[in-house]
Design a protein that fits this description.
The protein contains three helices and four strands; from the N terminus they run H-E-E-H-E-H-E. It has about 100 residues and is α+β, with helices and mostly antiparallel strands. The strands form two sheets. Strands 1-2 form a two-stranded antiparallel sheet. A two-stranded antiparallel ribbon has the order 3-4. The two termini are about 25 Å apart.
């Protein structure tokens, strides 16, 4: 949540908790390149937070971009499906969230 808060600094980007450990960010009136940059900033913010405390958090992300007329639900479901593919790939690489050993 702190990493999302670090990125939600304009009236174009909104962050929401969907439940449990799932969050969604919505960016409005941005280009595809700007959407990718927001994703990178989010990852960077999480990386910085991971240097603090005893919790190491890994983020799985699915990014979808819509332009013109599009169905919000369809866009959300596409992003969700991509997120699960990213999550699977990260787990296969041994990248998981965990508590650090003291």
């Amino acid at each position: 949540a702190k990493s999302i808060h670090a990125v939600v600094v304009s009236d174009k980007v909104y962050g929401f908790r969907m439940g449990g450990d799932e969050y969604v960010m919505v960016a409005v009136n941005v280009t595809a390149d700007e959407a990718e940059e927001i994703r990178k900033q989010w990852e960077q913010a999480l990386g910085e937070l991971n240097t603090e405390g005893n919790v190491y958090c890994v983020m799985a992300c699915g990014l979808q971009y819509g332009e013109g007329a599009f169905d919000y639900d369809d866009l959300y479901h596409q992003a969700d499906a991509q997120m699960y593919l990213d999550k699977k790939a990260r787990k296969e690489k041994g990248q998981t969230s965990h508590l650090r050993e003291n």
